Input
Amino acid sequence: MLRGINMGDNKYIDKDLKSQIDFARLPKHIAIIMDGNGRWAKKRFLPRNLGHQEGMKRVIEIVETASQLGIEYLTLYAFSTENWKRPKDEIDGLMNILVLFIRRELERLYKNNVRLHILGDISKLPSMPRNEVIKAIDRTKSNSGMILNIALNYGGRDEIIFGIKEILKDIDMGKIDIGDLNPELFSNYLYTKGQPDPDLLIRPSGELRISNFLLYQIAYSEFWFSDILWPDFTRDDLYMAIIDYQKRNRRFGGI
Ligand code: IPE
Ligand code: IPE
Ligand code: MG
Output
């Protein structure tokens, strides 16, 4: 199996990966497209929703690992604006898994000092998952550790349009002047308001695309792709992505 196709070599697999991380140069913000649940299930002749259930189990492990490493922001893509195209059964299953995840893991998130934040329009979710999400945001709102962004009914294009509408309201009310609009100011009208852009974007499952994720924020993110399916993604994969990230030379257009 190909793990981390951007790594160049696999020589550090089987070694203590964590000890190879330079803690002085951690990415501040990591974003992950949690993809491959369906294919994980298909390989085992199981229904897709069992793949989603298995994927849910990886979420808490990766959240705890990131938080213990000292990552300040972790963003997980859970449900896109395009995922409504899926069969109703699968959508219902995903919503139930979200409810189950919060009921099962909220206290653990709380004890890990994680603060939950949502990217996306949750007003469109059915009432039960929506209420659980609101409860979880409220429960963790005074925590001071890692910010966990869950992208839920999230689309990058949708977010940009949302931001434009909010800006137009503020221009209308005279709060800002159109001449003041610049990339930094615009960032403050996105769901990630006040947060740094992702340094590292991870996509497992073998797909080499963005699928409408964080379009504005990933202008200078480093990408790490892997063939691993999300239900097989372990903390070692996260360590490998970070080690690989730390070998890169980020120039931001400079030299
Ligand atoms: C990701 O797994 C989970 C969601 C999009 C909700 P998929 O369900 O997309 O899995 P594949 O890509 O079909 O394997
Ligand atoms: C992206 O995965 C969305 C999430 C992981 C939530 P998809 O499976 O929906 O993306 P495509 O359809 O392969 O581009
Ligand atoms: Mg997919």
Notes: The chain is about 40% helix and 15% strand.
